[in-house]
Amino acid sequence: YQEALEILRDLIQEDPAIKEEALRLRLAVATAVVFSTPVGGFGFKRLKIDWMARYHTYMRWSQEGILYSPFYEGTAWHLRFVVASRSREEEHIWARENTPEGYDNPNKIGDTNFKMINYKLNNDDGIFIGLLEYYYYIPICLKAWHDIGGVCGSISTMSAGMCHAYGVPAATVGQPGHCAYVWYRNGNWQLGNSVSDWAETFHGDMYMGRAYFFPVMNEAQKNLEGYRLSEKMRIISRLANPEDRFEILEDATTECPYNFAVWLDLKGAINEPNLQKETVQNVLLPTLLKQQEKETQVSDIAREKVGTSECFGDDRMKKLLVGLGSVQCKDQETFDFEVDLGKPSTIKEVKIKWIGFNRGVEYGIYALGEDSDYVLVRTHKDEKVEGWWYPLITLDGWDMTTTKIKFHMTKKGGRANSFAITKLIVMGVCHDFPGDVSKGKPVKENPGSSDPVTLVDGTNSTIWNGNSETSWFEINLKRICALDNIEFFWVDGAKPENVKVTYKVGSGQEAQKLGEDPFKKVPLSMDCGTTVRVEMFGGNAALKGVKACGVSYNVKEVLKAKVREAYSLKKDLYYVRMHLDKSINNMTYED
Questions:
Q1: Are β-strands 178-185 and 188-192 bridged in parallel, bridged antiparallel, or unpaired?
Q2: 155-167 pLDDT, tens per residue?
Q3: CA 35, CA 7: separation in Å to the nearest integer?
Q4: pLDDT tens-digit profile of 371-398?
Q5: Which residues, at least 6 apart from 134, have a Cβ–Cβ distance to it below 8 Å?
Q6: Which of 219, 351, 384, 412, by CA, is between 20 and 30 Å from 281?
């Protein structure tokens, strides 16, 4: 950091307007960060690029109107991947003078690779590229690649260099046995000359060298105010008491869920031994309430669920259901695949997008209920078709509550002996059904009463006696629970005159409900609580047992759902989310 600050100081001294103009400041910060480690040119590695000259060159070009819109619109982070170019000023000028016709715009400049260079393992004299003689001992530069050729590294570096000539962010990246590149197009990062996806793409400036952090940092830059605030909160949390860090960092993930560093720090904060569970519960309640509201809305409930198919393969089914790829089954007359929705669900609509003639001509869709076998609910006769070559098939939903969907396809009358699907969408609503959330949980009771464990042991063969005109017990549910009701199993003739139920999340505000005689069940309206307290007045209360019914949410699942909400609809962020899910799973915290 010292070197970067010193460079920034010298740039401001050279150009005081940096303090007044946003573009100059962004360019200066990018230059300072990049050149805090010296940058060498391609053909002249011992001759380091002059950072002051680099700043002035791009500033002059921006004033001359030579550069494309991403240069003016990008943040300092984006401009890092412009000023870091290892090509010299004269190479960039040459690149602009030789840009292929039709590619001289911000949306095409990154696609010039094979227009500017030929792929050649051997040069025109038959010399292999691994030898120094390949380039005839001349300095390696954009023009040399253009004139002589090269392989993947040359092609990708040429493409990045063409982008840099116009101020468009770009960088070469590594893939297994290959060199690709990324460039900034239409507000997002795009892979070029690629043989792999983001999962197998690497760049030294990204966290853990993973290039899939390009898209997530780019999302953070789209909300600079939120990103800056979240980063300030992350820094401040390091100065706070250890037991307070989790609350600060969880709020920071709300301000900017794409600030990946905050999530990493959150893992350490929740593992803090002095962190109170009540604090965690209080902090996560707003997040859970927001998630519950979203779950009542119709959405693609098949997305990221578990799909199985002997023909497609489970890995390909997984990519289909996250929107990362298509699936194909060759040389088959029939095939089946199944999607596990994970929860009982109401199905509103099913959409299937086929590829060309690779579609099921006749098919049936079968639904599995909670207490039934598979039932045929839709066939090809119910479909509505849009399009021809990539037809989109739409089928209406059905009334039966469904946990799994099975598709059986056949090729009767079909033109191609294969099946290929590029999109599968199941629109609907998943439901959480209440269960016993109190069984086996810790219980506190009024002094003088009998063993409270008998209240939640799940049997009616044991009896708890309050042994007092005013008796009470309190169940620690250990997790945040959406409470449907609390049910009482009284000993004959031993119920009280009045019952009051109070509940709360963590150390938050209490809510209460009064029971009505005969006090068999008190409805709690799916309100949230982590503790439930029951007070009984009059008489001598005796219970065979008690059951709090609701839906339980563990902390890790709430955090992963928060990640999923921000990341799941952006397919370029899939691998980042998998990284975050793994980090959350590795938290040592237990409810």
A1: antiparallel
A2: 999 999 999 999 9
A3: 8
A4: 778 999 999 999 999 988 888 999 999 9
A5: 122, 123, 127, 128, 148
A6: 219
